[in-house]
Amino acid sequence: MKSKQSALSVAILASLLLASNASIAATLEEVVVTARKQAESLVDTPVAVSVLGAEFFEKSGFTTMTDVVKFVPGFDYSPTSSVRANGTRIRGIRTASYSEGFESSVAVVIDGVVMAREAAGFFDLYDIESVEVIKGPQGTLFGKNASAGVINVRTKQPEYEFSGGGDIMFGTYGERRIRGSVTGPLIDDTLAYRITGSTNENDGVIDNKYAGENDVNSKDTWSLRAKFLYEPTDQLSATLTLDTVKEDNKCCIATWRTSGDDIGLIGAAYTPNALQLQEALDLAGITAGAGNRSVAIFEDRINQESEANGVALQLSYDLGETQLTSITAWRDYYIDEFNEADQLSNTDLNNRNGTEADSEQISQEFRLTGNINDAVSYVAGLYYFNEDIDADGSIYVELGAFGLFNSRTRSIRSVETTNLAAFGEVNWDLTDKFTLIVGGRFSDEEKDATFSRMGTSIDPNLPFATLFSGDYIGAQNSEDTNFSGRVIGRYNITDNVNTYVAWSRGYKGPGFDVGDGANGAFANETGGLPFVDAEVPTLIEIGFKGWFLDNTLSVNTALFHQSTEDLQTIRALPNGGVSNLAIGEVVSDGFEADFMYLTPVEGLTITGSLTYLDVVYEEFLQEPELEGENFEGVPEWAYSLIANYDFQLGDGGWSGFARAEYSWQDDKNASTGNTERTLIEDYGLLNIRAGLTSPSKKYSATLAVENATDEDYPYWIGGSTFSALGSTATSQYLGPDRIVRLTLGAKF
């Protein structure tokens, strides 16, 4: 595998050396970002931010965050069998939880609106202006749950000139996708619209060997977004956005990686009825292994339906030296998911679980941006947020060998969160080269949670009995205030080169464990719910950014040390359940860099990134003691390279491109305890793309091969339903194997 890395690197370097005497025909375009709530050059922005623009998405064909993360330093996203527990990482830090009482450490912001639930913001990335990945605590300006960083998505605005386009794609596993967008005027120079829609389906990427059942982990999604821009005067503009996304997927199931030791149900009464996983796999015709993409289940035991709807109104008014902005938003996110947790429907023990949840949020932000004089500028604002989420979850256990069918525990929970904040940041040019930046945010957050559980009584001798028996009710309230902020010193070495030093402190409010594995004994004893303290990160960062070689090379680097106290995370329990806890303190040290180079070869651009991360448990409040151990799920090294070559075909006006994308990451461990059986070994992925565009620029065709070398790689490796019985078996959630796609596009 490492030879593939070297081969690609040598090829790229060779192309640069061979072209060393060629003339430079162009320069890179300036990248504009809004990471500090104002438009500014990427080089001038004194925070660590990676930007992916519209051209990146057009050339790469990427439509999901799982595609994007491979090419952004310090950024990772690992899907699991439940979108509720998917965890976005920035610099190794994340919160992955099945509990509605917790929020992500990474804020997802779409057109200025913070998503209450991370999964609600991960729609198909189509008709996108840019995606900014902002690293480190960003609570000063972005506020809620931005303790690790922010994913800032900006969709394209309406235009007054009529235009549009779309594409149709066909791919492996019966994949088919249709997308389209149209924009134009309703009233010349006053009112414009933009309508964007997409639909994406496939027939399932996991082979289902159960007779008569369809393949699973299939996809069926569609989305629609309408934006209206109203500019009645030179001072006032209003943007109204309405969007909806629906999914009806037979997803997302893991597969068996190892079968472990044959096991029997623990307890003298049950040893004659040994449950042997390997026999069940043999009967189903499944071979456990790193490349296993097969299950044997009833299709109706896996399902993932979701719907997200939103309305947002952004008003901007130019007051001269000051810009007033108001963003009012309402959103709703509904999900109903069900999963066969043991990936088999032919064993004596079957474990199925599901949750139906509905989240409704409203938010309001008022923001002033302006200049006090030529040397001092500022951003100041007020923010209100409220989310009310209700969930109904069930866990089913069938013990066929013992005559116990459909044993069930049901939990009903509700969480309401209200956040009020005032924030501001001042930029003071002390000299023509040095700028001091000071910002702060005062937050008041209140959270109310209720939880009730109804469990079917089963034999207490069973090792997992505590998961499925006992009725209890718990309720909890918390109110917390916090002041977070940052201080940055930026120095302009030249007009094109900047460096900065930053200190910042973030905040994410307390949480309650209201998941299915919540501690019933705790609730019965106290009448409350397990409480987890607020998450507080502190960051020290040094950055260097600049344009070089006559503006043909852009480089952005950052060196950082971050300590996160009371990191909120999830942990597996010995009885097979999970709990949410604050693990003490996690320390992250690292370096990251990205670059873009417009080479002397006309049309050839090289883009790359490099990440080094050392993330360890500095303090671990639970057993066993893990101080000094690596934090789960974080590779030490990762890098990516993209070579894109644009060319003309003769004198006929046809143009084309050829593109190679390579990403590699080091070993990482998927479990909190860093066990050998959950080690994910290093792997590299190669994508190859080529496309043609007609002389009129109206028609295009692109052929892409993703994971061209057909690598088997897991997003995660974990225990199983049988862990409570002493099994060492492991399951895995695999990334896609080789995928071939043909896309045909048209513009008008």
UniProtKB/TrEMBL annotation:
Residues 285-707 form the TonB-dependent receptor-like beta-barrel domain. PROSITE patterns: TONB_DEPENDENT_REC_3 (PS52016). GO terms for biological process: iron ion transport. Pfam families: Plug (PF07715), TonB_dep_Rec_b-barrel (PF00593). Residues 42-150 form the TonB-dependent receptor plug domain. One of its GO terms (cellular component) is cell outer membrane. It is found in: Cell outer membrane. Its main location: membrane. It comes from the Bacteria. Belongs to the TonB-dependent receptor family. This is Putative TonB-dependent receptor protein.
